[in-house]
Amino acid sequence: MNAKRRRRVVAVAIVVLGVGIATALALRAFQENLLFFFSPSEVLAGKAPSGREFRLGGLVERGSVVREADGLTVRFRVTDLGQTLNVHYRGILPDLFREGQGVVTRGRLNDAGAFVASEVLAKHDENYMPPEVAGSLKTAQSNTPRPAP
Amino acid sequence: MTNFTVLATLLMIGTLVVLMYPLLIHDETRARVRGDVSTAVVLALLVPLATAALYVHLGRPDVLRAAARPAAGVDAVYAPTLDASLRTLRERLSREPNDARGWMTLARAEFEQDAIDAAVAAYARAHALLGDEPQLLAEYAEALAVQHDGVFTATANTLLARALFLQPDNRHALWLAGLAAYARGDTATAIERWERALAAAPMGGAEAQRIEAALAEARAASAVR
Amino acid sequence: MIPELGHFALILAGVVALVQGVLPMAGAAQQRARWMALARPASVMQALLVLLAFGCLAQAFVGNDFSVAYVAAHSNTRLPFLYRIAAVWGAHEGSLLLWVVLLSGCGVLAAFTSRAFAAPFVARLLAVLGLLGAGFIAFILFTSNPFLRLDPALTDGRDLNPLLQDLGLVLHPPMLYLGYVGFVVAFAAVVAALLGGRVEAHALRWLRTWLALAWMALTLGIALGSWWAYRELGWGGWWFWDPVENASLLPWLVATALLHTLPVALKRGHLLAWTVALILLAFALSLLGIFLVRSGSLASVHAFAADPARGAFILALLLLSVVPALLLFVRRLPVLRAPSDVPLCARTILLLANNGLLLAATATVLLGTLYPLLVDAWGLGTVSVGAAYYQAVFVPLLVPLLLLLGVGPLLPWGERRGVVVLRAVRWPMAGAALAVWGAWQGLASLTAGAGFGVALAGWIVGAALAAVRDARCAPAVYGMVLAHVGVAVFTVGVSLSTALHIERTARLVPGEALTLGGYVLSFVAVHADAGPNYRAQRATFQVTGDDGTRATLFPEKRRYAGSAMPMTEVAIDARWDRDLYLALGEPLDAGAWTVRAYVKPFIRWIWAGCLLMALGAGAALVERGLLAVRRRGAIPAALRTAVTVTRT
Questions:
Q1: Which of C124, C249, C490, C620 could form a disulfide with C479 if both were Cys (CB 3.0 to 4.6 A apart)?
Q2: Which chain A residues are Cβ-neighbours of B165 within 8 angstroms?
Q3: How far apart are CA B167 and CA B172, in angstroms?
């Protein structure tokens, strides 16, 4: 093996090692930060993880928004028209947060089974419903009998 | 020939001239290559044909003609034909009773013509076909209320509540729900509904003015009490 | 009539683009001079027609022609003039028209700056641009046509999304697209060269100009988008790792790698194949970005209507352009081999490491952006990737990159001894030490992370200054130095604003005050206010600070008339070393409001850094690019043989 070839082998080895380490680090971080999306029905069916963050989406139930005395802590219920789930959030709600409208929240379940949100996202314009929410609403609605008119 | 035809033709001729120039006249390499007449002819045929075909397929030359009509007197032009078109619509619906949009159009037209019973019947058909659609629910409720001399019946109130559940900022439903609340003396609810309706209404329009007037009246009434 | 004329002009432009794509390409293959000569006039004509179409659409906006569905959906009579113009590209259809305008405009620029090259190369270059232009015009006409009519017309339109009514977003799409288009031209040039079987040195030089231009525009575009998000989204972030943002970052990362390898390919004759591969990648990622943003597969401000037909069309365009180009590239690989007798020098190796890191960063962003889409497409559930992932992966990749940045420019080309690397490091070391000392003296508090960021910045600046000294006024160096200093400024901004920012959310009634890191924000009052197309609740805050700050801030809560959409308009007291950022939350009972306030130290440095990077690219452009086109005889013969490889 001549010097030139040896150098080349060393270079390739370094590159492979670097790429390997980077890939391993990236994949670990990736796995840790993957956020799954669930609807209230799925959460109550026990599908959501209890120890890690996930995203919860649905409609903000009409009349469910309650603000605590400090003015910053908000409680509301998220519904997929089948099941509802209590959500706690401390902070300023987005401009488009409204009762009866679609919402996606990020957070985790507490011991009492309520969802503690660290981030609340509302739809971006009047006609827009987050696609995840629209999907989960359709599933929930087909599972619940519609009230007769 | 309209302006559009003239301009489009000029545009086409200009384009063809630009494309013909390198093919027939200009010789960049100065190598005295002969002009490519056959390609020029093919292009001169294909480019206008393809463009015209695509434009006829995609464009709306009829809108040009419509725009050429005098804008004034539109009502005068349409008024005598309204009855006739209503008749055609009714006939069509008797043949195709499942056309929900048709029923809705008919209901609106009947409502405008003050044929309230016919309007309510048409709204009922549309509702049966379309299900709960907020705007339809609101208009249906309105027709029902007018039918009962301005009294919001239990049915009308249910329809409004359902419309607002589905679309909390439906202006029409908010306005009517405010009216219903005001009629039964619930001024606070009326004010709340109308404020939301006002927020959703385009600013400065006739609708906003109407809501503002109602709001002023309701606020005055609640101050008296 | 005007919209119809625009529609007609766009259709004609598509036909002309097709002619431009087919005949010159065939002419180059069959040595037909007349067909090749068609390329240049056709590209000019295509650009003029597209520009006419664009002008007609703009006129429809300015003249409130609500018989055009696109105008009726995105404008109204109360919309201010500037935003009516911006609304032309404010939504899907019009933004694609803007894209075609820029694409054909750059085609003309390419046609007239490539006079030095052989006719077949120019013909193929413009033909590829013509085919792409025809593809995009077809995309507009058949899936996203802005000239469709409403009959009967509306009396007033809806509204431009209030979030988009901002100067930052007026300029953001044109800049971003200009960047993408630059990569398209580079792609076309590479394909033309590969088709011809040779990649010539002066073509590479010419490409460098385009890439510098594209990179400059893309940098500015991304920075503008970030600046907009910071001010309009109301919570003080400047980068959200939103898939749409990522879509613009991906080609930027690859282009940055490219800017660093092109000189190697030019000077040393190495890495030619690698450079070509990067150009193909930058192009593919640009189109992928358009696919992601425009297909509606992502939910964001940018995605307007989900339409599977649009996604399928762009995907087809992407595959039809990239796959043949890749096959061609593989076939021509032997032609691109480097002369094997020139060994790699230390600087080249560092540049390769730079490329490796940048591509690793590209791969991580790509993974985070595409994975949720793929999972969703295969019906395996709905997932998203949190910002924490990007932070965890990006920082470890960027730190070595910045370290390299402090060494690379100091190594002389051709140097192969490791000792030189060690000796070169003394300048950046001094810079880092000086920077940390300065930060220690100047800042009230300094965390380890912030200190490290400042040290990295000092490291880069030290190296940049030393490079200026070494180069002894070789003007080519200034662009690079400016861009590197921009990176340093950016690093300071990111690390200090992240590490030292202070945030408070509170409930306030008029008369109360909020204290925040040495500042007192007194809530004076809220008044009703109105703009041309919105009503607002406008709050007044008096700000006093320990550092002598006296300011009045007016954060607003707006409600836009056309769409009834509420909007937070933040108020910012900006200074070179910090922003005081105030956003109004919701009204509560008894006149109280929720209020969010931040102190963001050195946050402006983020965008100032981007501006410097763009200026650096601009300086390089002015210095060599535009002039180099005319100095075609200036390439040494030895170099030409090193790079020019004839067909085998």
A1: C620
A2: 62, 100
A3: 11
Which candidate in A28, A31, A35, A53 is best for mutational testing of the C interface (most C CBs within 10 A)?
Answer: A35
pLDDT at C633: 41
Is A149 a domain residue?
Answer: no
What is the dihedral angle through the alpha carbons of C414, C418, C420, C421, rounded to the nearest 10 degrees?
Answer: 100
How many domains does the structure of chain A reveal? Answer: 2
B39 lies within 8 A of chain C by CB? yes
Q: Choosing among A67, A68, A124, A132, which should be mutated to test the C contact, i.e. which has the most C CBs within 10 A? A: A124
CB of C157 closer than 8 Å to CB of C71: yes
Structural domain containing residue A57: 37-143
Residue C516 amino acid letter: L
What residue type is assigned to position C5 of the chain? L
- A101-148 tens-digit pLDDT: 778 888 999 888 889 998 888 765 433 444 455 455 445 444 433 333
C368 contacts on A by Cβ (under 8 Å): 30
- Report the complex ipTM: 0.81
Closest CA–CA distance from residue B83 to any residue of chain A (Å): 33
Q: According to the model, what pLDDT value does residue B18 have?
A: 92
What tokens does C153 get? Answer: 């017309």
B223 touches chain C (CB under 8 A): no
Q: What is the largest CA-CA distance in chain A?
A: 87
Question: Could you tell me which residues come within 8 angstroms of residue B95 by beta carbon, excluding any fewer than 6 positions away?
Answer: none
* Domain B74-224, CATH among 3.90.1150.10, 3.40.47.10, 3.40.50.150, 1.25.40.10: 1.25.40.10
| Cα C490–Cα C224–Cα C279 angle in degrees, nearest 5 | 80
Chain B, nearest residue to A62 by Cα: B165
Chains in contact with C, counting 3 or more C-beta pairs less than 8 Å apart as contact = A, B
